[in-house]
Amino acid sequence: MMMSNELAMACPRNQSTHCRLYEFARAALIKIFATPYATVCDLYCGGGNDIEKWDEAQIGHYIGIDVTASGISDVREMLESQRKAYTSEFFELDPCLENLEMHLQDKGNMADIICCFQHLQSGFENEEKARSLLRNVASLLRPGGYFLGIVPDSSTIWAKYQKNVEAYHNRGSTMKPNIVPTCIRSENYMITFEVEEEKFPFFGKKYQLKFPNDVLAETHCLVHFPSMIRLARDAGLEYVEIQNLIEFYDDNRALLAGMLLNSVPNLVDPRGRLLPRSYDVLGLYTTFIFQKPDPDIAPPIISPSQDGIQNHDEREWQETSWKDDEKEGRSDSLHGLGKISEQKGILGPGPADLRLHID
């Protein structure tokens, strides 16, 4: 299972910081992108923790897709008991394995928004699953529609791993030969890789993520962002933004400060500015946003240069720092969303001096 049960349920204020943080991030994206009467398709919808948010956004129709009958049943019961204004329908399918267009024959090009707030990582066990997921998204999205969600930030995680490798080499004379620490420890979480890697594998790189109050660790796959962008383009989706939650929050602080203060008050000061401890918690996650171009309304969004994406796999890693004084200029916003001015946090194979060399 790629996401703990805790995150599959609504998170009261007395629950953990990372759970309430997920609530905030989902609410923020819904607030920015959802429009009245929109049709929303929710991938891996089990848990139903966003039904109130969609109701507040005044959407018109909700399509829930999940791999388990129990997950769908829970959401359906919640909607029926609360009698939301929007209509809904559900499908028990795996977007990474099945052709959704065949099962949802009358739903093609219908969704204004497709969201994936859980389990996107499962699609990056291999390229075939990732390609299937993105093709399914493109087949259901209306031209001009958005595919968006939240995922652990592979850039942040891989950079922390590489710092461990660097520290190992700096202490090389006192460490056992060819033994690299695979565990990343933080005040807020612990990340453990199953095996050491010299370079970032594009697919199938697994790790365990455990928070202080969790009984068991969650198993995830790192999402290699250049591969995600490449496969999305192949499917007909244009890259808009992959942005760490720290940058996402700062770019939209006027809109989001009150929401974060109410959701996770110990991350911001009374004026809505991030506290120092916020960087470790927020920096673990990133938003992703793609759009299906609508040639009848406007020219398609221009993705970063073809060379920039295709050759990024061979480029050296540019380690991401999320300190305010190291942030650079930003371009104008689109629909209230802060646009990044460079590909911050998009993974490459890592710098030569931080790669693991085993003789």
From TrEMBL:
Localisation: Nucleus
SUPFAM superfamilies linked: S-adenosyl-L-methionine-dependent methyltransferases
Q: Which UniProt keywords apply?
A: Methyltransferase, mRNA capping, mRNA processing, Nucleus, RNA-binding, S-adenosyl-L-methionine, Transferase
Enzyme Commission numbers on file: 2.1.1.56
Please list the residue ranges that the record marks as compositionally biased, kind Basic and acidic residues. 310-333
Instruction: Extract the ranges annotated as region (Disordered).
Output: 300-359
**Its GO CC terms?**
nucleus
UniProt domain MRNA cap 0 methyltransferase: residue ranges: 13-293
Q: Name one Pfam family in it.
A: mRNA_G-N7_MeTrfase
Swiss-Prot/TrEMBL catalytic activity: a 5'-end (5'-triphosphoguanosine)-ribonucleoside in mRNA + S-adenosyl-L-methionine = a 5'-end (N(7)-methyl 5'-triphosphoguanosine)-ribonucleoside in mRNA + S-adenosyl-L-homocysteine
Q: Which GO terms describe its molecular function?
A: mRNA 5'-cap (guanine-N7-)-methyltransferase activity; RNA binding
Gene3D superfamilies, alphabetized: Vaccinia Virus protein VP39
Q: Does the keyword Lipoprotein apply?
A: no
What name goes with this protein?
A: mRNA cap guanine-N(7) methyltransferase 2
Q: Origin organism of this chain?
A: Dillenia turbinata
Cite the source lineage: Eukaryota, Viridiplantae, Streptophyta, Embryophyta, Tracheophyta
